Each structure stands twice: as C-alpha cells, then as structure tokens.
Amino acid sequence: MNSNKIELLENFADHCLFFSPGKQVQNIKLDKALIHARNRHTLPGFIWLSLHQPTEAQMSMVAEVFNINDLLIEDAASAIQRPKAERYDDQLFYALHSISYSDFDKRLGSVRSAGLVIQTGTVQMIVGTGFIVTIRHNTQLPDVLKYLAEDPELIDGGPLSIVWAISDRYRRYLFAGCY
C-alpha cells in the first residue's frame, strides 16, 4: 500500500493500537500496523484499528490492509445494521446498537424544552487473526482501555477481548438501573 493511502487511513482513524503479550498498549502509526498485519501469523499480539463513519472507499483500503472479506466492506460502511454476529470464513463481524442520553439543554441552538433526548448509534467490529477493526456510527466507544487496564489478563483473549469489553461496557450502561 502506498504512503498516500496510509496517510488517508490515518486521517479517519480514531486510533491504531498494538497489544503485545506482557507489554503496555502502544499507540502506533498505521505504517507500523501494516508491518504487523503482514506478519500477523508469526508475530505475537494484535492490532486494534478504530474508525469513525468510514466510507465504502475507505473501508476498501482497510480491507486491503487486513485482507478483510469483500462481503464485510459494504456492511461496515453502513450505519444501518441490525444487531448481529456473523462469520465470514476466518473472520467475525459483530454489530451492536448503542444508546445514550444527550443533554440538549447544554447545547446552543437546541430545543431547550427537550431536556434529555435518546440518541442511538451502531458499533461494528471485524475480528480476524491478529486484528480487530471497530467502526462507530453516531456513537462514542466506551473507555475500554481503562477497563482492560483493570484486568490486564483480559488481553490474553486477543482481539475477542476487545469485542467482549465493548459489549460489556454497553450492557452495563444500558442496564445500569437494573442491578
């Protein structure tokens, strides 16, 4: 992949992190992630690339880097997904819905009488050998790094540990009043 494409990918990525056994999480540049992606079957650890509302063209670039199944590209670029878990060859695709309360009283030009308004979003996750790509549409990711730092052994689960941590944080937020 040429340097122009790498720069484009870095411009729409929330973050690119490298998790290595026994080491602290490292924020890395995408060119270093590409080296790991090419050697992911022999190098320990995994990459977490987080994206915000990528286009289909941007997802095609990501798919090229991680050899993501073509059927996932259109799904990942679309914000309209039902919650699901699907398998595509040796890759997994998860889609979750998020809800959050938006306090419009603190925003200028908003409907002041609305008070709290519910906002919905979608988080999609593509998991493969040595990587996870998260895609968020109209939502923020929960603070998963802080959560994982509390129990570093969770990372031993590889990319699926990120899926679990994100899912668990949303579940805890959604059902906070039920426990």
TrEMBL record:
GO terms for cellular component: membrane. GO terms for molecular function: metal ion transmembrane transporter activity. It comes from the Bacteria. It holds the Pfam family CorA. This is CorA-like Mg2+ transporter protein. It comes from Corynebacterium kutscheri. The lineage of its organism: Bacteria, Bacillati, Actinomycetota, Actinomycetes, Mycobacteriales.
